[in-house]
Fold this sequence. Notes:
The structure is a homodimer.
Chain A: E1 9-15, H1 19-31, E2 34-40, H2 44-52, E3 58-59, H3 63-67, E4 72-75, H4 82-89, E5 98-101, H5 107-116, E6 122-123, E7 125-128, E8 149-153, H6 160-172, E9 176-179, H7 182-207, H8 213-218, H9 222-228, H10 235-244, H11 246-268, H12 272-292
Parallel strand pairs in A: 1-2, 1-4, 2-3, 4-5, 5-6, 8-9
Antiparallel strand pairs in A: 7-8
Amino acid sequence: MNAREPPLFSRAAIIGLGLMGGSLGMAMRASGTAATVSGYDPEDSATAAAVAAGAVDEAAASVTACVTNADLVVLATPVLAMRQLLAEMAPMLDPGGLVTDLGSTKAQVMAWARAELPGGARFVGGHPMCGSERSGIGAASAALFRGAVWCITPDEGADAAAIAQLSELIQRVGARPAVVDAVRHDAAVARVSHLPLLAAAALVLAAAKGDQWRFDLTLGASGFRDTTRLASGSPLMARDICLTNAGPITTALDAYIETLQSLRTLITEKNGPGLLARFAAAREARDHWQHEHAPGQ
Amino acid sequence: MNAREPPLFSRAAIIGLGLMGGSLGMAMRASGTAATVSGYDPEDSATAAAVAAGAVDEAAASVTACVTNADLVVLATPVLAMRQLLAEMAPMLDPGGLVTDLGSTKAQVMAWARAELPGGARFVGGHPMCGSERSGIGAASAALFRGAVWCITPDEGADAAAIAQLSELIQRVGARPAVVDAVRHDAAVARVSHLPLLAAAALVLAAAKGDQWRFDLTLGASGFRDTTRLASGSPLMARDICLTNAGPITTALDAYIETLQSLRTLITEKNGPGLLARFAAAREARDHWQHEHAPGQ
């Protein structure tokens, strides 16, 4: 972030002012990436809170007011809301402007953009690999994107200049752009992001189901806290992820259930060497990941 | 912790000087809970490191040397090592002394203590609900137990004075004693501690199994980091937990797999309301736990 560089955009429009949209507004303002940041959220209270938190320069009263004359439009809503938003804003979009999104799943969003935007629109999908189990503007931070990988998923034949512009935006807010095919992206995040979310929710649901769950939960310590953290995230966002990435997620779930079944078999067989080998392999892979790829603690 | 109180024990013996044993030595020394803390570890390097780290006052050359004349003996090894240790130390135990352990599973350890210790031995099982994915003395800290629930699992007819003595030890190192039946304890920790451990290891193993896992893992962010943290723990400890708590763990695993299957069904049916309800229930239960029981962050 270098505030002395000239702004990359004259007017940025952010649709959706929760954790992600609010954080992006803060980060763009802090880095001078856009001369003006306009924001819109369907909930008036969210818009007001974003203005108060300094996430946007101005609050727009509608989607169309927000995107009019914007040379950057960012969709920062739950994924299922995006198709209608794209259709609604299409007539007002600046043909030379850049349109992107922050959604957790990409193939579906790309298909909607192809269907809903006029031929000349410069849409390039995006997904910053960061977040928090806390949602809303209250959890937003200009530092959210710092050091994070930010996937860029251009369509075939996408405008190279638009990709370059999105890359620069990403770098200005401290993240690391990585171009990846949307289908490849969705399969990868199904394993390393969506499956952990389902695993966390299922741990809580299974723990809260026993006869004595009230007592059981009194014994939960830091391990329970961390493995279940994602279960405290937005249910709406989780639902949309499941509905827009169903294929890759069920594939990842099947591999997970199969792995759990194989561990169960080792336990019932009292296979000590087998269990030791599996836990050692898990530790090795996890330590390798921690060393190579883990975000800052 | 109040160093001005007189020591509760004249000579404490800790067998096993890793994360848990080392931390207990540090906490007892910092709080003046024992006049002298003696330690033994089968690995000479671990013993030397514990002395250097100030976790023990003196290093014993053998189990029998360590426990001789001790009025407190603490087993802080992986669970499967405990039966032989109990047999080995039995002839040397002070009949008036207190013997306890820090093992993650309790019914099996209690049965071994009944089998191996002389009739008069005052054994009371224990399990502090805290830890770290890091193992060894390098991760040990006098503050590890602060604020943690520490389960006490006395046998029927256990010496009330011994239970009281263990409770006081626990409070002196900053933790909160909770008396619980060993079988009840094992069922509860299967759900809130052992299942999360298996879930974390399986997440890593499943993620590392795909064709493109090297790429997939580059997208892992804070969610992957936290849900898989426990997979970086000691494989030996994980194996021993599975082998000594097999029944409750398979019951918990079955409930978990069933929950995952039900989520999978909702996804394949594209059942938005059903998914939303499940994620909302998980968030509510998790937020309740976080509010009521979560350890300090």
